[in-house]
Design a protein that fits this description.
Number of domains: 3
Strand content: 5-15%
Helix content: 25-40%
Number of helices: 26
Radius of gyration: 25 Å
Number of strands: 25
């Protein structure tokens, strides 16, 4: 087993510092004021103050408040906005590396038109007039069947202009790639308590059960959640117990870590729930008043999940299960944290409901320090709003009972199978060829002009997906663009934030607002009426018009100055369900789900065995692809600072397992997709073995975010000089210091070999079902 080198030490230290050097405090804003002193910055040479503007980071889903510092129209630093209710001035490495995204040396600044076959990297620069005219002509011709437009984006809920454009065209097919990660959790929570998602109130709790999550490295509310997680430990002396298949930064802050056999966490949770019910530790009043089951019904159902069964199948001691169940039930308040490591299975919805049950039966629901419902402002669609076009096979697939955000890979497979006609594919700042499972199938679809006759990519970068486009329109980055941002509040107080240009757009890059408005005008046929805004400010003002109190504070002008607004008189509205019940058909938490029963699924939270795990072969292991604090899937690979810290992803293997397989530390190995994982077609990747006791013996784990085959020279670890950068604004002498391509490589994208497989209830990708055969290369 290897020792920790200086480079490994620095990498671990940088990753930890990015998330752990935080302090948390809710700072209500009583009135408008200048930015706090901590938000100011000066030139280190002259001592002169830098100009600055607040905005919102989009380097990950958290949407932290940021301050961009500018000297002579060039962004020189990104810091945290001390006024933002979520991150309160702290910022992770990804947020600070937004400078790299803005000044990526291979960034696109003029439209490109394909001149060779798709994927051959043969392009010619064209003017905007030609690009817009050709795209508008192709889209106008295809509009005889409006549902033939397929619009793929990162997250439909956070791309309101993209959704508006698609609906104005007459197509319902605005599809977000975020569904491949959190669809199952959103469906599970929606079915159970009528709201998509949850907010664990970790800063105020006394006991936290973490099932597969890693809030100190990755979370939809990353920095804000990490701050509050640490606060709960330091200020409340909360106990943290982690169930996982590997060691993470979160486990280093926990009081206990229990390795769980892959796919078995729900069994452990249900065994704990069984103990709570059988030993009378449950909250009878809450169950009887606010759920649709009785304690007796639950106790009878849960009796099948004994701690002894969980020990035999999941590997967690029955004594520990009984002890932890009693501790959790007797400590108030308490909460749970989950993410896609729990829900990213073919039984993901049931897994999520199983863990959620622990908070329900102990009455830790929407209370201070408990598991809270998400709270955020709903924004108006500016009038006139395009009509909702209905549904299609892409938005309402037959093989998913409760589709929320359809997985992009599933949509591309449907297109390949000709389930519906696609005449125009528009991809907007999304990279499914990297982010989605089964790269081979996705590439085949994007390459085939019979399946996708026309593909326009709207993106700042020539990433893996844009390489298969016919026209590429260079979009502004988030540091040059506008949008209203709303997200679930970690403080239970909803807020409105602003993303605004910190620097002017480079060269001829255009915002998506400009592109969509221009295309709508050219396509015509009524589309133009939905984009008849004189300016982007008019559009933004219409978006926030329904938010009471914001107009009195100054509306858009207030947001431009402060970056965020929330009602200074608001306080966390715990227990909001007591006024009107839950947003379910019964008005209660539906532990027994009639909607699941109607479709033939288990109506009570249940454990379902993953079929692929029933009998693992001698050389077979379960592949776990995990997220880190340094990369956001296919989004940040072109950020130089992040790649200096994390640029490869050796496969983590338990030493006992490695010895059985005849593998030593540093060996070249091949991971071959097992036929148990849904498809017989062999796909494989090659990587390096990293022996560590920090992973379950049945698991082989690889980090996500590296292994790009496109996305420019930084993402691929290529060294070059600044005079080799075409655009003057993007030149930086540090490019010749790119070293990682020659020292360990740039990793491999493990998602390439994962087949498309979904939870039949929620439609989320079953990442966790992946079985591989491991061979010494």
């Amino acid at each position: 087993m290897r020792t920790i080198s200086r480079r490994d030490f620095l990498r671990l230290g940088a990753a930890s510092t990015a998330v752990l050097a935080v302090e948390s405090q809710f700072r209500p804003l009583a009135r408008a004021a200048e930015l706090l002193e901590g938000g100011r910055s000066v030139n280190r040479t002259s001592g002169l103050p830098r100009s600055f503007l607040p905005s919102t980071c989009t380097q990950c889903p958290a949407g932290c408040g940021i301050i961009g510092y500018v000297e002579e129209s060039r962004l020189v630093k990104i810091g945290g906005n001390t006024k933002h209710i979520s991150n309160a001035g702290t910022l992770c490495a990804r947020g600070q590396a937004g400078i790299n995204a803005l000044y990526d040396p291979d960034r696109l600044l003029k439209p490109l038109k394909r001149t060779g076959a798709r994927g051959q990297d043969s392009w010619v620069e064209i003017e905007w007039e030609e690009a817009l005219a050709e795209v508008a002509q192709r889209m106008a011709a295809a509009r005889s069947n409006p549902q033939s437009l397929l619009f793929l984006t990162e997250d439909v809920e956070r791309d309101p202009l993209g959704r508006r454009f698609t609906h104005a065209y007459g197509s319902p097919n605005a599809i977000g790639s975020a569904g491949i990660h959190d669809a199952n959790k959103k469906v599970a929570t929606s079915l159970t308590w009528g709201a998509a998602g949850d907010i664990p109130d970790v800063a105020r709790c006394k006991y936290v059960l973490v099932f597969g999550a890693n809030p100190l490295e990755n979370n939809p509310n990353f920095v804000g959640m990490a701050r509050r997680f640490v606060d709960g430990i330091q200020q409340n002396q909360s106990k943290v117990v982690v169930f996982d298949v590997r060691l993470s930064h979160t486990t280093t802050f926990s009081h206990e870590l229990h390795y769980v056999a892959p796919g078995k966490m729900a069994l452990v949770a249900l065994a704990m729930a069984n103990v709570i019910m059988q030993d009378g530790l449950y909250d009878r009043d809450f169950i009887e008043r606010w759920t649709n089951v009785s304690p007796e019904q639950l106790a009878q159902h849960l009796a099948q999940y004994s701690p002894e069964r969980a020990e035999a199948e999941a590997g967690v001691s029955a004594l520990d299960i009984r002890r932890l169940a009693a501790e959790f039930a007797s400590t108030k308040p308490a909460t749970t944290i989950t993410d896609s490591v729990l829900s990213g299975f073919s039984n993901g919805v049931q897994n999520e409901r199983a863990v959620m049950l622990l908070s329900i039966i102990t009455g830790n629901i929407d209370n201070r320090g408990g598991l809270c419902m998400p709270r955020q402002y709903g924004l108006d669609e500016p009038a006139p709003a395009p009509p909702q076009p209905g549904v299609s096979v892409f938005t309402n697939p037959e093989n998913v009972a409760f589709p929320s955000q359809q997985a992009v890979a599933q949509v591309l497979r449907q297109a390949k199978d000709r389930q519906a006609e696609v005449r125009v594919l528009m991809t907007h700042s999304v990279n499914p060829l990297y982010s989605s499972p089964d790269e081979g199938l996705n590439e085949d679809v994007l390459r085939d002009e019979n399946v996708i006759p026309f593909h326009v990519a709207i993106t700042p970068y020539l990433n893996e997906t844009a390489a298969f486009a016919d026209i590429i329109m260079p979009e502004t980055t988030y540091m040059e663009d506008w949008e209203i941002e709303v997200r679930p509040s970690l403080e239970q107080v909803p807020f409105v934030a602003l993303r605004q240009p910190v620097v002017p757009p480079l060269e001829s890059a255009r915002s998506f607002f400009e592109i969509a408005r221009d295309l709508a005008s050219r396509i015509g046929g009524g589309m133009e009426q939905f984009f008849a805004f004189n300016s982007v400010s008019d559009y933004l003002k219409a978006r926030i018009s329904s938010v009471g109190g914001l107009a009195n504070a100054g509306g858009l002008d207030y947001l431009k100055q402060h970056g965020i607004w929330f009602d200074p008189k608001s306080r966390p509205n715990y227990g909001s369900y007591e006024a009107g019940g839950f947003s379910t058909p019964s008005g209660r938490i539906e532990v027994f789900s009639p909607r699941l029963a109607e479709r033939g699924f288990a109506p009570l939270p249940s454990y379902e065995t993953v079929q692929a795990f029933r009998e693992l072969g001698e050389r077979e292991l379960v592949l776990t692809i995990y997220e880190t604090a340094l990369h956001t899937d296919g989004k940040t690979g072109n950020c130089m600072w992040l790649n200096e810290i994390q640029h490869d992803n050796p496969a983590l293997i338990n030493p006992e397992t490695a010895a059985r397989l005849g593998i030593e530390d540093g060996d070249k190995i091949k991971l071959i997709r097992s036929s148990k994982s849904g498809e017989a077609k062999e796909r494989s990747i090659e990587t390096e073995a990293f022996l560590t006791e920090g992973v379950h013996p049945d698991v082989i784990a690889m980090a996500n975010g590296v292994g790009h085959t496109g996305f420019g020279r930084i993402a691929q670890g290529e060294k070059f000089k600044k005079d080799e950068v075409r655009h003057r604004e993007l030149r930086d002498a540090n490019f010749q210091l790119v070293w990682w391509g020659d020292h360990g490589g740039t990793g491999v994208n493990a998602k390439r070999i994962v087949p498309i497989e979904m939870d039949p209830i929620g439609g989320g990708q079953a990442w966790g079902d992946m079985v591989v055969s491991v061979a010494k290369d």
